[in-house]
Amino acid sequence: MTCQSAIGSEKSQVLALPPGLDVKRMPAHIAVIMDGNGRWAKARGLPRMMGHRAGVESLKTILRLCSDWGIGVLTVYAFSTENWSRPRDEVNFLMTLFENVLNRELQSLQNEQVKISFLGDLDALPENLTDLITKATHSTSLNTGIHFNVCTNYGGRRELVLAAKKLAERSARGDLDPALIDENVFAGELYTSKECDPDLLIRTSGENRISNFLLWQLAYSEIHVTDVLWPDFNDKDLLRALFDYQSRSRRFGGLESSSANQKVS
Ligand code: IPE
Ligand code: IPE
Ligand code: MG
Fold it and tell me: Taking the CB of the first residue and of the last residue of the chain, which one, N or C, has fewer CB atoms within 10 A?
């Protein structure tokens, strides 16, 4: 699917970019593994929960900046299918935090024209939270600003298995010829079917792994890992990630355009 940053489109008002950023090479879609909340709290002698609370403030800052700088899509990893294995108190705290924050921020998301979606196995979440998710998704669905995808009870492998299952069901019903299944048809069954793939993946807290995040969609994303813990991640860190991204040469398996043009002698 073609995907562009909001720059140049009529949809959104893009504020001035910081000097040095190339307006023509902005990523259209940024994905973020927001990691390091627990370590941030531990370093301050605080309970882990305080790290999660502080992480919400970083998320608000980064969403606002992405929207202001014309990023079309921001997809963040909030809770993985593996995070249920954490102590019950922490899981309960996170579920309540998601609900409280969404309740509190819904009006400002509306005001900022943010279109929010939740990607993952949402049926397994507490009912109050799923009800609120349904309300927030529905009430912002026609907004024309940034797409903000919150991966909640999300697992890349689960998403792939689900897609395979849906295709198998369509084939078994006689609605789909298996011979016609290609990458586009497959991608159409993923949670992200309406989005282009991320151009840039940011992971905080220095972990060099993707932890079951967007296994299909990250095939050709540029990866920026920073040691900064998520609650400390700010405008300067986002700018650093964008400069890093703009310094990359994206070849998608091909050659640099200058070398591609060279004749073979
Ligand atoms: C990321 O921070 C938030 C979630 C996974 C919900 P962590 O809670 O993983 O923080 P660390 O990695 O333990 O520091
Ligand atoms: C990834 O962080 C999940 C989220 C950020 C929601 P984790 O802290 O769960 O990942 P691992 O355990 O370090 O791989
Ligand atoms: Mg972690």
Answer: C
